[in-house]
Amino acid sequence: MPPKKEAPVVVDIESSDDEGSVEVVRRVADDDDRKPAISNAARIAAIAPPPPPPPAAAGDGLESRSFWKAGNYAVAPDMKLASDSSLLEYARVHPKFLHSNATSHKWAFGAIAELLDNAVDEIRNGATFVKIDKIDILKDNSPALLIQDDGGGMDPDGIRKCMSLGYSSKKSNTTIGQYGNGFKTSTMRLGADVIVFTRAIRAGRATQSIGLLSYTFLRTTGQDDVIVPMIDFDISGHWTEPIIYGSKNDWSANLQTILEWSPFASRGDLMQQFEDIGSHGTKVLIYNLWLNDEGIYELSFDDDEEDIMLRDEANQGSATSLNKRTAAVQAHISYRLRYSLRAYASILYLRKFTNFKILLRGKPVDQYIIADDLKYSKVVSYKPLAAAASKEVAVETTIGFIKEVDHVGICGFNVYHKNRLIRPFWKVTSDGSSKGYGVVGVLEANFIEPAHDKQDFERSSLFIRLEAKLKQILSEYCSVHVILT
């Protein structure tokens, strides 16, 4: 439950890459501190905003729509609070931290993959689809990115945990999420603002909630804390009933802030967003999408009506005339996944879904199982030397030649973690080496931890030993099949 307006709860974190973005301050404890919904250490404030500050100085607004420049703005000196021995310490997180935190995603598709992971994790709660699409914002006719699933949804407490920093309830042997940071980093990497609509049924009670995480709002109004307005409704009865935690004025203030800074101008427009969610599910709408350095949207929705492209990556291979070999390389999935979301999503998960679909711009993504498409394939078993307390498990690597070996100089291992692709076409041989030409491998390495952006692995001793083992597997395979190369 959100705290009362007069005693905001803000995020507790350990560190920040952005110097000066975190300041330890104090506040008086009150009875609300004993409520379970707000007793967690790491929380983003879900409160009515404070009175608006004086107008920002010229140049302090969100002029730069390029992601890599969006963190470059002046921070006003923080207000000094009086010291009192009866006050409790807590950490204040400046909105700049949202940007510096999101820079962990160097690649926009990596951010989209995080949001797809959330939907895939909902398969255990009955999800049958996740759809990714572009919609037009009526307020300014700008594009927005929509990601929606029909999973279990989030109740009021769940959406607050989702939008808090560092909180995760998904640490398990099967779910992909574990750090409690993916939603914030991924949405803020793709656009300046995100609004979430979710419905859930818990213990016989049906609820729907709306939460707004708006970098534009926080910067433009000069906030020095991360404030996330949220509103909740009980929909168990015959009509929609607002859930009031503090006062009606607080609830109304949250609603007004959402209406002012979201793409929706009225409460009716907000409620309309639930019509296609059904009894449970979640809709994430990312808007004010980032631009590249040329002032053009990073994500291209116009080059292919059934795909979403990374504009800058796609342009790198857009030469007018290509020789046969270069054209074959650029047509291969190992190249296309760099700029085509459809290509990347097709190999993002190791095992085929049975009752779940990824719908990209209205068309299902056909999963491509690389191991099923190899010639002269061989399965090599490897037992990593993990920590003494760990259970010894065999890791199976499927290795073989790609079908296009005569035309495409592609090689490398596709390494998955808990069904999710982490390193595609990882070339373990040294640069310039021709060993392994046309040879591709696939394995699931659950014994090593992925980095926070899930685009690489932590370079631990286990990872280094895995790299050496894959070099050995490649060398032994090539020595047997050298006649084929």
From TrEMBL:
Listed cofactors: Mn(2+)
Entry keyword Secreted: no
GO MF annotation, one: ATP hydrolysis activity
Keywords: ATP-binding, Chromatin regulator, Coiled coil, DNA damage, DNA repair, Endonuclease, Hydrolase, Nuclease, Nucleotide-binding, Nucleus, RNA-binding, RNA-mediated gene silencing
CC per GO annotation: nucleus
GO biological process: chromatin organization; DNA repair; positive regulation of defense response; regulatory ncRNA-mediated gene silencing
Intracellular or extracellular location(s): Nucleus
Pfam family, one: HATPase_c_3
Superkingdom of origin: Eukaryota
InterPro entries in alphabetical order: HATPase_C_sf, MORC_ATPase, Morc_S5
Ranges for domain Morc S5: 339-477
Primary localisation category: nucleus
Gene3D superfamilies, per the entry: Histidine kinase-like ATPase, C-terminal domain
Protein family: Belongs to the MORC ATPase protein family.
Full protein name: Morc S5 domain-containing protein
